[in-house]
Every structure is written in C-alpha cells, then in structure tokens.
C-alpha cells in the first residue's frame, strides 16, 4: 500500500457509477485503519457533500470492524480483563479514545482509596472508604435524570461526567476493587446490576458477606433483601444469579443496555451495530 494508491482510490469516491463506488469502497475497507488518515485528508479538502458522506461512512465502517475484531480477540482470549472489555466498548462510540487518560483517571481514584485503607478495616469499613472516595470526594452518582442515555454505558464518559447506570458504576467499582485486592464482584441481578463482597473464608469464594448497590451511593444490603427483590421480579432465586459475574457477562450486559438505549432513542442503525458486536460472544451468554 502506498499513499498514491490510496489517494487515487479516494479521488474515485465521487464517481456516480454505483458499481465503481462499491469496488473502491471495498478496496479502501481492505486497507483498514491505515487508510483513515488519507480519507480524513480528502474529507477536509472536499467540497462535495456526497463524497464527504461516503468518506465518513467508510471511516466509520473501518473503525467498527476494528472494534469488532478487538472485542472478538478479547472474548477468544478468555475475556479476563474487565477494563480492557470496557475500553473496547467505549471505542465503539469513541474510536479516538485516549485509553491512557482513562487508566490515569482510574489510577487517581485508586490512589485516593488506597490512602484511606489499612489492614485493620472490616469489610464494611472498607466499603465505606470506597463509597466515601467514589461518591463524596469524586462525586459519582446514578444518572437518574437521563437513565436510558447510551453515554451511561461508556467508561470514559462516566469517569468525566461522574454519572452512570448501575452497571457502569459497578464496573468501575469492580475494576478499582480488583486493583486494590478488595473482594468486590459484580452480581447480575435482573433489571438492576449490583455488587457483592465475597466471603474469602468460604472454600469457593462464591458466598457473599453482603451486597452493594452502586447506583445508590454504595448502599449495603443483605441476602434476604436480594431474595425479596427476586420474588418481586417473579424470578426464581437460583443460586446462579447470585454467583460472581464474569467480565464477559458484564460486558455482554453492557451491550444489551446499549441496544435498549439506542432502540428507545430511535437510533436503530446503532442498535443493529451493537447487535452485530454481540455475535462475537458465545451463544450461552446471558440475555439479561
């Protein structure tokens, strides 16, 4: 691939012949991300709205293909790193995402929490420290006024706006907890993602000492409250619901949230794209 080859292809994007355009578009797509700078340069110089729209569409398709490939690689390699999964999903909407900035932002919050921790704290006291730093010092809160907004699902936006939905706030909490060796895990309750504080003295570490509501400033509640909630939702209290959620399950749930958000807001093309991203997940991925 040379600049002159890409440049020549870009100059054909205003060809009125649909077959020519399709052929040129497919060729540009085959070059992948390396074609984007040339495409952007042509967009800036072009005075033709049709050509600009075509360039925008090709750039978006290249970026989408890259996001899908990254998500598939994450899944195929075990989907172990929750932060990596959240960053890939953020790149779907924000392809120029500065991942280092996100990691640095999380590192500052982690340091603030670490400075207030000590080995003598109980589990409840540890959670109170985390809640104080997250909700009092950094001002995180549930986005009650615009709950359905897709932005609530993207970690970079939630970190900047300090507002999110139960899942995004929960994911940030779990990421920080993992980095601080605090046994907080995600719990895939229906309709309302929650957290659990694992009882590390249990052999399989799946039993929770208590549960945490990330959407309500980290409020703590017990197992009986969970069981009453499930009964109210007409959900059988299956122990599988109460086990720690895997990173794959949390990111899959994020895609479900995005499909719902985009659909309700009338962005059907965006919803269809996220459904295409869901195709890289195993068929056994949870639906709720």
How would you characterize this protein structure?
With 288 residues, the protein is of the alpha+beta class. The chain folds into two domains: 3-76, Leucine-rich Repeat Variant (Alpha Horseshoe); 82-278, no CATH class. It has helices at 3-11, 18-31, 36-45, 49-76, 82-93, 99-116, 123-137, 155-161, 166-179, 223-232, 239-242, 247-264, 268-278; strands spanning 141-142, 163-164, 184-187, 194-198, 208-213, 219-221. The strands form two sheets. It has a four-stranded antiparallel β-sheet with strand order 3-4-5-6. Strands 1-2 form a two-stranded parallel sheet. α6 crosses α7 and α12 (247-264) packs antiparallel against α13. It is elongated.
Helix and strand arrangement:
Elements: H1 3-11, H2 18-31, H3 36-45, H4 49-76, H5 82-93, H6 99-116, H7 123-137, E1 141-142, H8 155-161, E2 163-164, H9 166-179, E3 184-187, E4 194-198, E5 208-213, E6 219-221, H10 223-232, H11 239-242, H12 247-264, H13 268-278
The assigned structural class equals: alpha+beta
What series of H and E elements makes up the topology? Answer: HHHHHHHEHEHEEEEHHHH
Number of domains: 2
* Average pLDDT reading: 90
The parts where pLDDT drops under 50 for at least 5 residues are: none
Structure annotation, total helices: 13
Helix content: 55-70%
What fraction of the residues are assigned to beta strands by DSSP? 5-15%
Strand order of the largest sheet: 3-4-5-6
Q: Key features?
A:
13 helices, four-stranded antiparallel β-sheet, Leucine-rich Repeat Variant, alpha+beta, 288 residues, 6 strands, 8% strand, two-stranded parallel ribbon, single chain, 2 domains
């Amino acid at each position: 691939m040379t600049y002159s080859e890409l440049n020549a292809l870009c100059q054909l994007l205003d060809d009125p012949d649909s077959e020519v355009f399709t052929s040129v578009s497919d060729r540009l797509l085959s070059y992948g991300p390396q074609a984007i700078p040339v495409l952007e340069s042509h967009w800036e110089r072009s005075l033709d709205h049709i050509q600009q729209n075509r360039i925008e569409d090709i750039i978006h398709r290249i970026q989408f293909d890259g996001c899908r490939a990254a998500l598939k690689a994450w899944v195929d390699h075990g989907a172990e790193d929750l932060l990596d999964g959240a960053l890939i999903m953020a790149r779907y909407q924000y392809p120029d995402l500065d991942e280092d900035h996100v990691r640095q932002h999380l590192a500052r919050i982690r340091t603030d929490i670490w400075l207030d921790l000590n080995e003598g704290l109980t589990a409840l006291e540890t959670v109170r420290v985390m809640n104080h730093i997250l909700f009092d010092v950094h001002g995180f809160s549930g986005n009650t006024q615009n709950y359905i907004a897709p932005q609530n699902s993207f970690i970079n936006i939630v970190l900047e706006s300090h507002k999110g939905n139960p899942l995004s706030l929960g994911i940030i909490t779990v990421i920080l907890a993992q980095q601080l060796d605090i046994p907080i895990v995600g719990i895939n309750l229906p309709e309302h993602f929650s957290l659990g504080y694992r009882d590390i003295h249990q052999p399989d570490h799946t039993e929770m000492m208590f549960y945490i509501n990330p959407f309500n400033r980290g409020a703590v509640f017990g197992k009986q409250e969970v069981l009453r909630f499930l009964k109210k939702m007409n959900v059988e209290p299956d122990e599988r619901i109460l086990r720690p959620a895997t990173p794959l399950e949390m990111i899959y749930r994020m895609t479900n949230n995005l499909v719902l958000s985009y659909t309700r807001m009338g962005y059907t093309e965006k919803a269809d794209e996220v459904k295409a991203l869901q195709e890289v997940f195993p068929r056994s991925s949870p639906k709720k």
